[in-house]
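FAQ

Q: What does a record look like?
A: Structure on top, sequence underneath. For example:
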């Protein structure tokens, strides 16, 4: 079996936060707290969790855009968290990102050709303008844009078209890993499906590995090979996508699935979505033991006293003391 293209071990990203008042003690916000996973070549790993669970911070730590407190981010055998800035810059051509808001991530003063071609100018400064334009046009066609749109500006495009520009820009260097930071959350439902299908097609064409971040499980269902569920910066469950939807083992994963509205209107009326209740605790003062216990219907005294370790159960890795005893979701 080949080595994973990306290997994350015990990754922690903490931020200092000022305390209350003039003499308040500084506190620590644990945005990412001991996350480990591998990403194989040409694989898509879906990363799911509510807002504030550390998904985007994890993505930026992988790309070297935020400081890593501890742990390893190994890409092609190198620990990116320990690389000097110049060495890290060399690796950036292999690690790209697609942002959540397509229009906000594009420079309004640049036309499409300039936006998509900018990475080529940065990493291949000796490339001629004709060579660069040819590559830009080729990539535009790969993402479903017309060559005659090359001189237009971002405000002339719809949200879905603007996201295609962002995808083209991310792929123009033919990177090995692309982080998709909630790339469809700002789009209409019909456009979401188009972009997800486009990403799947481009992955098959170029063999790129994807980290696909979303706040709900429905968004990653048809694009992911495996799914990792985060809560307060910790991994709750990691499993093949079909295992996650067929037999979710962690109560938080089950709650996220029950919050998905059924696509069939009749089923939606008979079994409406059930939003997860309770408030997300502060990452500055997380609960003792299992961080999900304050919202978990199965929590026992042990959950408050002992933090569960991520352990293998069948095809899944689950951080729950009671994973074998918790009933499945009816009709899941």
């Amino acid at each position: 079996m080949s080595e994973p293209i990306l290997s994350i071990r015990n990754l922690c990203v903490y931020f200092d936060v000022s305390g209350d008042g003039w003499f308040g003690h500084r506190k620590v916000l644990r945005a990412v707290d001991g996350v480990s996973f591998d990403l194989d070549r040409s694989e898509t790993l879906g990363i799911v969790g509510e807002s504030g669970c550390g998904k985007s911070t994890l993505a930026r730590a992988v790309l070297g855009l935020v400081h890593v407190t501890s742990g390893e981010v190994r890409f092609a055998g190198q620990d990116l968290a320990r690389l000097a800035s110049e060495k890290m810059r060399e690796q950036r051509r292999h690690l790209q990102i697609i942002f959540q808001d397509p229009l906000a991530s594009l420079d309004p003063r640049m036309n499409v050709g300039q936006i998509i071609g900018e990475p080529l100018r940065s990493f291949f400064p000796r490339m001629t303008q004709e060579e660069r334009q040819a590559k830009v046009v080729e990539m535009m066609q790969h993402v479903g844009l017309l060559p005659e749109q090359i001189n237009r500006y971002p405000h002339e495009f719809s949200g879905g078209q603007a996201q295609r520009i962002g995808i083209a820009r991310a792929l123009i260097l033919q990177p090995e890993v692309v982080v998709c930071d909630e790339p469809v959350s700002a789009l209409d439902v019909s456009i979401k499906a188009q972009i997800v299908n486009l990403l799947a097609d481009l992955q098959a064409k170029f063999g790129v590995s994807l980290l696909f971040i979303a706040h709900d499980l429905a968004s990653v269902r048809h694009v992911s090979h495996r799914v990792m569920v985060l809560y307060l910066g910790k991994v709750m469950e990691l499993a093949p996508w079909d295992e996650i939807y067929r037999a979710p083992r962690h109560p938080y994963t089950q709650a996220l699935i029950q919050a998905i509205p059924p696509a069939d209107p009749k089923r939606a009326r008979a079994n409406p979505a059930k939003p997860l209740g309770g408030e997300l605790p502060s990452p500055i003062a997380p609960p003792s033991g299992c961080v999900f216990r304050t919202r978990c219907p199965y929590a026992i005294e042990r959950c408050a006293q002992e933090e569960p370790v991520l352990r293998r159960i069948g095809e899944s890795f689950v951080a729950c003391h009671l994973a074998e005893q918790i009933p499945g979701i009816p009709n899941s």
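Q: Is there anything notable about this one?
A: The CA atoms of residues 118 and 169 lie 8 Å apart.
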